[in-house]
Amino acid sequence: MSTSTLTRPPVTDDDPRQPRRRLTPQRVVLHVFLAAVAVGWLFPILWAVLTSFRSYEYTASHGYVSFGGWTIDNYVTAWRSAEFGKHFLNSVYITLPAVLLTLFLASCVAFVIARFSWKLNVVLLGLFTAANLLPQQALLIPLFRLFTEVPLPAFMSDSELLYDSYWGLILVNVAFQCGFCVFVLSNYMKALPRDLYEAAMVDGASVWRQYWQVTMPLCRPALAALATLEVTWIYNEFFWATVLMRTGDKFPVTSSLNNLRGEFFTDNNLVSAGSVLVAIPTLVIFFLLQRHFVRGLTLGASKG
User: Structure pTM?
Assistant: First the structure.
């Protein structure tokens, strides 16, 4: 006598037989709140894009709460007036070295904090993290005076000073961004199995080889996520470029938006078009690295 066992297939989230969750008043309030937050977050961006495609003459006569006056002349005028082509290259000269130097230095410090145990371990981590807690404006005067006193060779800076040079902006961004990267990478590296380092030491690997050939390949998701954030933050930096540079031809693209301001009035449609042009590179980079960014955040959250 044989008995047959009936096996029920597992119910997945996409299975239509799965009962739907009841729509309670709490869930309705939650969905309404999230929809309101999303609209409030996207409205300024959508409004800027809409305004950038409208002529100033039409909005001046009909108001911004109207429909019509469509044109792309704002983008052409903004590109020519602000000289975005030249200033985009300036942003590349500042952003690319700053991001690479930040990730390299932060990974070195994070490796020491995560790999070695010594008395000043927590103090070192707190020292680098403290840079993110201090308002940048509090350091304006001492940094300005320092930059006007530190000399540089003529081939590195036209002003022969750290002031009004790309190197000055690179160093400022590295100094303020290292703390966050050290904090993230140190927590990520602490979750790596110590057996890997013991096996590397048995094979005769030096500390440098443990860092470069063992740790760094495993930290690629975290480095990709941090690179996406750092490119966005350093590229969009406006404060230090305005304070520590005086030559208009050296300004990054965000600071060049000042060229679109008039002496007696400002064409908001033109400024909106310029802002959209400035934002396009960061959006492209984010969407290209989105998979790596999400993967890095997910792996970092599941460690430990």
Answer: 0.81
Whole-number pLDDT of residue 288: 82
Whether 103 has a pLDDT exceeding 90, the answer reads yes
Q: What is the rounded distance in angstroms from the CA atom of residue 236 to the CA atom of residue 20?
A: 44
What's the token pair of residue 295?
């993967």
Percent of the chain with pLDDT over 90: 35
Does the pLDDT at position 11 exceed 60?
A: no
The residue to which tokens 């430990």 are assigned: 304
**What does the alpha-carbon distance between residue 217 and residue 165 come to, in Å, rounded to a whole number?**
34
